[in-house]
Design a protein that fits this description.
Rossmann fold, 2 domains
């Protein structure tokens, strides 16, 4: 059954049982609160990598119970990130999580040839959104990792997003390749990429979902808007996955949902040995 | 006084008195309803250019009162757009409006050397948004006309947006030049453009507003988010104007606000002899 809310996602995670999560630069209150909460609910066992003294002080000051968590002393964030990747690589943890460290530094550790999680595929970001008033989870990619994807990279972005949606029970997700317009316009290169991706899916070169594009955001998610524009498409108006043309567009879409539409977001980086 | 809601905007427009609006390809129910409503409220006198028989039938069928409106027979949308530009150019109308015609075709008529509204400046789109739960109008540009703006064009986009905000009473609008991150990153060209625009404003090369960038959407509009990121800026957290890096990002931001955050939007194209 497709997971349609974060509450259902939580139930599914509880059924699977706790995963071991290694957190890089865990010396931050928000992070420790989330870790304690996840442990309490039986979702995760946490390994905290960071400034041990700072972690203990923050926990004490905020009355956060970190008694059951292992702490590994590594105050320098970049080294903490490397340590976290090592833990995952060696199988001591299943998930690498970012604490008080720049996203770029965290990803550089994940991509490191020596300790990183590369398996020869592209690492891509998939945002999962629960939006008030919207009837299903919406998956958006790539809003956080790949800056200006080439066509080859867009194929991997689409494939990774389909994988995440399928893991959350959407058997054959509907994928909209977004652009500023639904018309293929030689002057707008993103519409050409979108048309190419859609045709690749028609030819079976991208698998697991129903893919169409270019579509504008309105006609990707609103049946009414798709109807007014007269678009005939299995995806128009009912997309599960939105593929942004680049990180700028994806990032703005994701942040508009979070800040103005009050959506809840869970972000995940896939394509490596384990999720980030 | 700054106009903060569409209701206040309506009041201000009523004080100015009705403008003559020429509508290209007016043979559509939504358009006729809006025209009749604007006339009834004393906001506009409308000239309908389009398929006369279709206009009359739609009006009759929908009980829409178009009795006071002049109708000019021109069933072909592209020619109707040219006629509308001519009316504005000759001073018979003050505003050109798009009916049932592709945006591209409408703009091509506006840009036409013979009948168009060019005055040597760039035509740019400014979207004005009223967002539920947000304390002020938000201006976004360019989400509809300039596809991949050069630095020179971005300067005009910023300047036009400042002009529109000022006309709506925001004396010194705060302008956020958006990118996927607030850090200047040599690998992300849009952050470099944003930094350049901000510095041009410091040097007085762009006037009339307080300009900063790069800023990500969250730290442009949320004081809380700007504080957490430790950004020191007069604009961060309190932007009136958001400048998108390109039409894809702008379009997605605008549509996310309209469809998911239930915002009301009024779009205008400025930079020509008269607004579109």
């Amino acid at each position: 059954m497709a997971i349609k809310t974060f509450a259902q996602l939580m139930e599914a995670a509880l059924e699977v049982g706790p995963k071991t999560v290694a957190i890089a630069a865990a010396h931050e209150q928000e992070i420790l609160l989330a870790a304690a909460d996840a442990e309490k609910q039986g979702l995760a066992d946490c390994i905290l990598v960071g400034d041990r003294a700072a972690i203990k002080e923050i926990a004490e000051h905020g009355s956060i119970d970190i008694g059951r968590m292992m702490i590994i002393q590594e105050p320098e964030p970049k080294l903490a990130a490397r340590k976290v990747m090592e833990l995952v690589r060696l199988g001591h943890a299943q998930i690498a999580m970012k604490g008080k460290i720049e996203t770029g530094d965290f990803l550089r550790a994940a991509l490191d040839r020596e300790v990183g999680l590369r398996v020869g595929r592209l690492l891509t970001h998939v945002g999962v959104f629960e939006i008030p008033g919207f009837d299903r989870l919406l998956f958006i990619s790539d809003a956080g990792v790949v800056v200006a994807p080439t066509m080859e990279q867009k194929i991997e972005i689409v494939q990774n997003a389909i994988y995440v949606a399928q893991r959350l029970g959407v058997k054959e997700p509907k994928v909209a390749i977004l652009a500023a317009t639904e018309m293929v316009n030689p002057k707008i290169p993103t519409t050409l990429d979108a048309a190419n991706l859609a045709k690749m899916a028609d030819r079976g070169q991208i698998k697991g979902g129903i893919i169409d594009g270019p579509l504008a955001l309105d006609n990707a998610i609103s049946l009414e808007s798709a109807r007014i524009k007269g678009i005939k498409s299995e995806v128009a108006g009912c997309a599960d996955i939105l593929i942004a043309p680049d990180i700028e567009a994806g990032n703005m879409l994701a942040k508009a949902l979070t800040y103005f539409a009050k959506a809840h977001m869970a972000g995940i980086v896939v394509g490596g040995k384990s999720p980030l």
